[in-house]
Structures
1.
Amino acid sequence: MMDDLTQYPLTLEGADAPMVSFRNVTKRYGSLTVLEGLDLDVAEGEMIAIIGPSGSGKTTVLRMLMLERIQEGVIYVDGKPITHQAKNGKLVPASDRYLRRAREPIGMCFQHFNLFPHMTALQNCMEGPVQVLGMSRRDARERAEDLLEMVGMIDKKDQHPSRLSGGQQQRVAIARALAMRPKVMLFDEVTSALDPEVIGEVTNVIKKLVTEHNLTMLMVTHQMGFARDISDRVCFFYGGRIEEQGKPAELFDNPQRERTQQFLSAVKSAD
Amino acid sequence: MSYWEFLSEYGPRLIDGTLVTAAQFFLAAALAIVIALIAGLMKLSPYLPVRAPAVVYIEVFRGTSLLVQLYWIFFVLPLFGVSFDKFTAGFVAVGMNLGAYGAELVRGGIQSVPKGQWEAAYSLSMSPLRRMWRIILPQALLNMLPPWGNLLIELLKGTALVALISVADLMFEARQINGSTYLSAQTFGSALIIYYIFARLIITPFMRWLERVMRRKLGRA
């Protein structure tokens, strides 16, 4: 069935317009449907925690925003469609170039950090501002140093990633993403590849972002305690849909759906 | 005639030939590297019209003999109005042949860079060209260096064939000396040693050094 694109607005306007909006979004890999008809609005400054069993489509939510194309529906960021572009007053699938530009307000951190190994921590954080934003090296260096200071990595700014621990690399990766001054930050299981004793140094940085900045954030995580602590809303994904969502205290203490209850008790007993 | 007498008599000609071989080697290597980079990148393109010429080039030059290619470029192309002098025909043939092998190394090197690097570069909104040039190629280059060392030695050995279109390289001089003196063991023995020294004492150490430098630059020392 063809998706009728005329049902979606060209832009989202108004003071209460969400920063990120998924409208009826479906993502398939070949014949496998990973997410079906996803509707999700994220308000400006809101922190959403996405939880769920593996294969539930939770990481796909972030990948659709930053890396992949969708099969149906429209995604809006900051009022503008990113997956589609307006042509003659109608939405058409976005060109590669449009898609890349439209994603500029989004920053992303990955499970495996993905720092550039041939650059120092500082160079990693300067690369985007210099190459993409066209900043002078001096300004970019200043911005990068401020951010490395903020994540507590200024002492290691001239080290290559191979000399840094996982927690340190992830903090540099957060600084690198922030150097582009994103409006939306995506955290894709950023603590999953870390040794337990360094998880705190990364979660502390994210907490700092939540309290000191007005960033909109979507975070896929397995750390229920952390999700509960810092998120404004928790979405529990199951089978490619949002099974249940709500304020962290409500969802964790009083889950309504059976699958949510099962998942949470399974996670609890594993802890 | 002792070997020393042989060397004092014919050494200068062997040296002349070696210099021509060296020139053929460097020019062919430069050509091969440029072609390999272009064809390797083209072969990775998602667009068929870009990919197809690279695939055809690589298939033709890897699938047929270097000697036949050399003869084609020197003897057959002039029939179609494209003629090279023998020196140019020599390094062009060798460069294009080894460039086809190099293209596969470039392709493999680029594909060996983890997908996460592409994603990280994309998430910084880098354009495809910048992603390739700033992020992927520097890492791919390091992965490629060891096989390129082997390829350059193959290329050096390949240059010996240009003697067959009368480029006065080391092999050509050796054949000439052998033809007039019949001192085959001394002549070809010397040629063998010179090729070996060139390969093992110049190319290999240079590539190792390059790898060390790159490794340091990429912070993997």
2.
Amino acid sequence: MSGHSITEPTRRQKWIAAVLVIAYTVIILIPLLWIISTGFKSPSDAISYPPKVIFTPSLEGYVNLFTTQTRITPDMEATLPPPETWYERLVREKGMVIAGPSRYGQRFLNSVIIGFGSTFLSVFLGTLAAYAFSRFRVPIKDDLLFFILSTRMMPPIAVAIPIFLMYRQLGLSDTHLGMILLYTAVNLSLSVWLLKGFIDEIPREYEEAALIDGYTRFQAFRKVVLPQAAAGIASTAIFCLIFAWNEYAFAVLLTSGEAQTAPPFIPTIIGVGGQDWPAVAAGATLFLLPVMIFTIMLRKHLLRGITFGAVRK
Amino acid sequence: MAEVRLEGISKAFGAQVAIDDVSLTVPDGAFVVLLGPTGAGKTTTLRLIAGLERPDAGRIVIGGHDVTALTPAERNVAMVFQQYSLYPHMSVRENLAFPLRSPVCNLPEEEIARRIGEVAEILQITHKLDNRATALSGGEMQRVSIGRALVRDPVIHLMDEPLSSLDARLRADLRIELKRIQKDLGATMLYVTHDQTEAMTMATHVGVLDHGRLVQFAPPREIYEDPVSIYAASRLGSPRINILPADLFPGAPAGAESIGLRPEHIRLGEGQEAQVVRLEHLGDQTRLHLRLAGHDLITLVAAHADLKRGDSIAVSPQTPLYFDADGNRI
């Protein structure tokens, strides 16, 4: 072999790796930057060609996102008191007035309730099931595990029609509960399998020691297994949240008002005289934030979680 | 502290018989060592007493009470595991406090602090109390896990090869420390090992297990000097007892198939001629490998014995042990 080993890259190799990683990151981030910048453009800048990279930032998109507006005639405008806030002024300049808040806030809240609700339920049930599969003599264990996994062998949307009919019969269409149950059902196989891997890695001796130390099986689970499975639970939660948060097809099919989540709502934001792209982009930008914050909060666990379980000592 | 009695205990895992009709009494305050190779059923015996396994047959009696159907928590036993002995997400102090805070124990915090202080003192880990459990060296970890058993005052301490993962020096230190602690506290201990030095030095009684059966239960000296079988004789003594055909030497009793010779049973200088095959100098003594009529023989000689490879030396047995065709002592 030559002077250096595989484990120690040369300076040159490091440079090449860095350039590739940076290039990849930039390419990945372009659509994201596009959306974020579009949110701050005026409607005309948003659709100009060639696209403007340098533009005068405007909050019009965000104002449009959160409000509904009506056009008024100049003589009507003369009868109104002068605008009091910056956003009223912004709207008035276009010859319009704010008629009320839009439905975006409520849709966003639906996403939060359904996303976090189903994530909590998936992880909660998944942890209990994974623990049982990992530690107890469950009859036909392997078949059950395979059966749980088999729910993932088709795209979930393949069963859209039966679920649509079932939900209509049961009165679960367009309800928070219905969407939480649906996303939990889809996520559960992932969470059971992921968490089983993590719990398998925790030696039984710890629980046995706790049993001998005077604790019940459940207390041993809570005080000894759960803290050690924290990394696995955190990364599983992120995966579950990302799916439930971004899910579009079922949301379009099963929700229309009451429980509609943000993904099907955002594209329907229509401005005056055509699609209001800055408002759509603003809606998408805000929609990114919760998952981003959640992931950053659990980042430490996530990195450990992804490598943990895969590597055997 | 209490006497622990096993009465006709059997346990199988599927078709694999782990424990076969074992009866055994650990007297109050005794230090009992279970000896046997891997798979002999040593660990299973501990787990049965701890309540981590249920026996298929037989009774377990602790301090006069039948505990066979009780959960581990209800039995008030302590156990030190071979590995994974500390809760990795807790500090040393929390590890020691964990059994004391259990719903079974539930001591007031001052009492917990007092006991931890005491045990930390005994084990010389006072300065490590606030370390994370994972930030300790192997020896410290094992000391803390022994400490977790000591804080509790259980009826019996079960120890599953607690020293086997440590290096030789530390093992020797902890061996002495553990024996001293056991004596001072008057604790009852059941200790599993395959290290004969640990058995010889610490035990008041040794139980020899062979494929799930208890073949001999006696003080270590007695097992060494008066073993019931070749198997039991081979558990203790270094170098191992030499087993040769009985008819190699004159004077074998009727029915004897094998003769067992420990180094002290071999007189050098008279008898049959044997060839020196190898000399192992251990510093304080020398191991002498001999070849006698096609059989290997190992004995000990003084450190500076004037021998070399190829020399001839006469050997004869001196009050040896005789065994029959099944390996049982005659």
